[in-house]
Amino acid sequence: MSAALLSSAPLSPISAPSESTRFLLPSHLKNRRRLQPSSLTRYRPGQNLGTSRPFTLRCSSTMHQSSAPSSCSQDSLFYSRAFWVSRSIIAWNVGAGDGECYLYASKNAALCVADGEIQGHDVKIKLERTNYGLPQQVVEKFPHIRDYTAFEVPATLNCQSLVKCQLAVGIFNSDGKCASATGLQLPGILDELFSYTGPLGAVFDTEAVSLYLWAPTAQEVRALIYKSPAEADPVEIVQLKELNGVWSVKGIRHWEGCYYVYEVSVYHPSTLRIEKCVSNDPYARGLSADGKRTLLVNLDSDDVKPEGWDNLQDEKPNLLSFSDISLYELHVRDFSANDPTVPHEFQGGYLAFTLQDSAGVKHLKRLSSAGITHVHLLPTFQFAGVEDEKHKWKHVDIEKLNSFPPDSEEQQALITAIQNEDGYNWGYNPVLWGVPKGSYASNANGPCRIIEFRKMVQALNRIGLRVVSDVVYNHINASGHFDDFSVLDKIVPGYYLRRNVDGGIENSTCVNNTASEHFMVERLILDDLKCWAVHYKIDGFRFDLMGHIMKRTMVKAKSLLNSLSKDKNGVDGPSIYIYGEGWDFGEVANSGRGINASQFNLFGSGIGSFNDRIRDALLGGSPFGHPLHQGFVTGLYLEPNGHDLGDKANVERMLAVSKDHIQVGMAANLKDFVLTNCDGEEVKGSEVLLHDRKPVGYASSPVETVNYVSAHDNETLFDIISLKTPKDISVEERCRMNHLATSVIALSQGIPFFHSGDEMLRSKSIDRDSYNSGDWFNRLDFSYNSNNWGVGLPPKEKNEWNWPLIKPRLADPSYKPQKSHILAAVENFSNLMQIRYSSPLFRLRTANSIQERVRFHNTGPSWIPGLIVMSIEDGHQGVPGLSQLDPIYSYIVVIINPGPTDVSFANPALRARSLQLHPIQMNSTDDVVKNSTYDASSGCFNVPARTTSVFVEPR
C-alpha cells in the first residue's frame, strides 16, 4: 500500500526523541430477543465476530472474556488492550517495571511478532511511562480503565496520519525481548482530533449534490454512483477528498434519484488488514430494497411529501402537558396483516393506517376517543431479519395451521421452519437508523417508503393520535468488514461500537453495543432524532435499552428536541416526549462507562423510564422468575395456585409488600412520596425496597414514570394471568383480573402504557418472546371474534421448558374467551380511559401536587389483605388550601379489590362525603361494578370481587 493513500497528511519517518455459561439477566430486564448476525469471514481471538457460517447468537456473560496470554506472541496483535485516550497519552494495563515501551505503525498492516520483536513497522516511537496516572478528564471519559498506566506520546508525532495505520505497542525486557504487545483502541484520540459538527450525508442545493463522510482512519474513500437499485456497474466513480477526517465531494444536481455506496479503504482490527469496505452512508435518508444502496433523496422536496404535509403541525391533536399522555404500543405488521377489511396490498404496511373504515382504524378511533393520546410503533427504521421485497417471503398454509389442536407442537414447527424467511420480525436489529423500513412500504425501492411513512403519521394524527417511534441506538445488527448489514464498523472500524478491555465488541444488549460516550456516535444519534422529528414529524421517542446510552446523550437529545420550533423547523419540539428502558446492567452497570441513562440516574431529567416495580408486583415475581409465582392481581395469598411460596404468614407478607410497591407506583413512583407502609411506618417511596434492597421509588416527577403491566416482550397480560392463576377458576374471573390490572395502570399518576391487545384479552398462545414467531402467534383480531388463545404450543426455542405448564391450559376449552368476553374487555378499557380523562386529578403534573392530594388508606398492619384504597383531593375556588384543578369533581376515591369475594371497607377520614359511583361505571354494561356502594354516615364502601370501583364527589 503506497504512502499516497494516507490522504492530505502523508506519514513520514519520525525520529524518536530522547528518553459462557448462560447469561442470567437481571430480574427487571425484559426478555431479550431477536438478533441473528449474518455470517462473517473469520474469527480472531478477542473479537466476537462469529464464524464462517451463520449462527444464532445468545447472550452470554462470558462472551467478551479473553483467556489469551498477555505475553508477546503473534496472537497478541489480535487484541487491542491499549487505549490511545488523548493526543498525548496511551493507557495500558501493564505493571510497574523498567521495560521500555514503543508505539509501532504500519501503513500496509504488516506488523507481526517474531523472534521476540515486533516487525513490519514503518514507524517506531518510544513512549515515556508516567508516574501520575491518567488525567481526570480521561478517567471521566473512560472510567473502566482508570487504573491503567499512562504513557506519554511525543508532541512532535503526526497523529493524524498514524491513526490510519495498523498500530501496536510493545513492552520490552531488559534483554531487549518483547514481553507484551497489543493493538490500540482509538476513540479517545479520534474524539480529540476529529470531533466534527459540520454537514454529513448528502447535502442538496440548487446546483449540486455534495457528499460528506466522517472517516478519519480511512486511507481512501470513493463513491460509486448507480442509476438504479439493481444495475451491476456504476455510472460514475468519484474520489472523495479529506479535510480533518471528513471526506467530501461536490457532485452534479442530477445525482438526485440515483443510488450510491462508499468504498472505504481502511485498517480493520477484525482482520488485521487494510480492507476495502463497501458500505452505505451512515447518514442515509433513502435506500434500495434490503439496503443494498443508499438513495440520494432530498427529504425537503415536494415530490416526497403527501398533500398537506407541511401544515401537519396545525392538525396534530392538542397536548397541554406530558402528564396527559397515554401510550399504546403497536407493531406495524400486527396492526393489519390479518385484517380482512384491509386490501391485501396494504396489509402489514404503512398505508393500512390511512384507511378510514378498516376494523383496525375504527378500533384506534375508539381508543383515541376514550383518551389514548400516542401510538408507540415498534421499530420502523431499516432493520435486518425481514426481506424488503415481499415476493421473497415464505408462507405457511393457514388452513393447515387451523387444522391442528390448540395444544399441538405442529403449528410452531411450521412457523419456525420459515421464521427467518417470512415477513415478520419485531425489528430490534438495526441496520440504518435514519430510513423507514422497506418491507412496510408498497415498493422498497425509490422514495415510496418515505412518502408512505409520512402518510401513516399524517393519518394517525388526523384521528387524534400522536406517533412515537421506537428507536434502537444501543446496538446495531452487524459488524466487521464483510457483512452486508455492517455499516458503522466499516466506515470507522473500532469506533462506533463499544469494546471491552481486550478489544472485543461488547454484547450485553445481545450484539454489537454502540458507544454513545464517543462524540461522533452521540452526534449520529442526535442528528437521527432531529431527522425523524423534523422530516417525519414524530411526536415522541421510546429508547430501547436506554440504560446503555449515556445520560449526557439523553439530556442533549431532550434539549435538542425541545429547541425545535414550528416557525423554524415546522414542528413543536417542546411537545415531543422521550422515554425508554432504564435497565442498568452489563458493562454500563453502575455507570461503568460513564453516567448512563438508568432509572436512578435520570432523576430530575424529565425523561421517562419504564416502571418494572409496578409490573412485577401486579403479576408476581418477574419475567425471569418461576412462571407460577403469583402477584397482586393473579391470586397471591387470596387464591393460591399450589406453587410453594412458603407458609401462610410469608405469603401474606409478600402480598403486603407487593401492595406497597403498587401504591408507590400509583403515586408516579416518586422517590420522595410519603406513605404509610404495611408495617405502619411513614416512609418515602425510596425507602420502600425491592428484594435486592434497591429503592422502589426513583422518579422526581410524574412524567419520569411510565407505568405498565405488559409490553411486546414476555407473555401478554391475558396469557400470564392464565398461566399464574389457579386452574379451577373460570374464564370470566380471568377476564376480570385482566380488567383489574389495566385499571391500576389507567388510574395511576404518571404516564400509562398499554400493550396493543391488552384491551382485547390478547393472547399469543403463551409465547414469552414472539419477536420472530410470525403472524400466527402475533395475530390481532379487530373483529373481536378471537383473542388468539390456543393456536398451538408457542415456539420451542424460548418456551419448551414451560410446555408442561402451557399444554394442559391450551387444551382446556374453558380457558378460551368468547366474543362476549372480548367485547366486555374493550368496553371496560374504554371506560377506564374515559375515567382517567374525566378529571385532571388522575393526571397531576408535579410531585408536590401528588404529595398534597393523593392518599392511601387501608395501610399499616391491620389492613384488609389485598385491598388498595386511594383518594385524590381537590381544592375549592376561593377557599384557602389546595387550589382547584377539577371543575366537576372535588374528591375521588379509587378502590381496587383483587380478591375472590366482596369487600367492605370503612374509614372515618372518608365519612360524610357526597361520593357516588363514577357515572361512566354506572352507565356501563358491567353489572358487577354497579353493585359498588358507599354509605356516607359510616364512610363504608362495598366493592365486588375482582373489581376496581371509582367514586367521585361532584361539586
Automatic annotation (TrEMBL):
What region holds the Alpha-1,6-glucosidases pullulanase-type C-terminal domain? 784-953
| Xref: InterPro entries | GH, Glyco_hydro_13_N, Glyco_hydro_b, Ig-like_fold, Ig_E-set, Pullul_strch, Pullul_strch_C, Pullulanase_N2
**CDD domains from the UniProt entry:** AmyAc_Pullulanase_LD-like, E_set_Pullulanase
Pfam annotation, one family: CBM_48
What residues does the Pullulanase N2 domain cover? 80-192
Q: Which SUPFAM superfamilies match?
A: (Trans)glycosidases (SSF51445), E set domains (SSF81296), Glycosyl hydrolase domain (SSF51011)
Spell out the molecular function terms from Gene Ontology.
Answer: limit dextrinase activity; pullulanase activity
Entry's Gene Ontology BP terms: starch biosynthetic process; starch catabolic process
Report TM segments.
none
The Glycoside hydrolase family 13 N-terminal domain covers 199-284
Q: Which family does it belong to?
A: Belongs to the glycosyl hydrolase 13 family.
Q: What is this protein called?
A: Pullulanase 1, chloroplastic
The scientific name of the source species is: Nicotiana attenuata (Coyote tobacco)
Tell me the classification of the organism that encodes this protein. Eukaryota, Viridiplantae, Streptophyta, Embryophyta, Tracheophyta
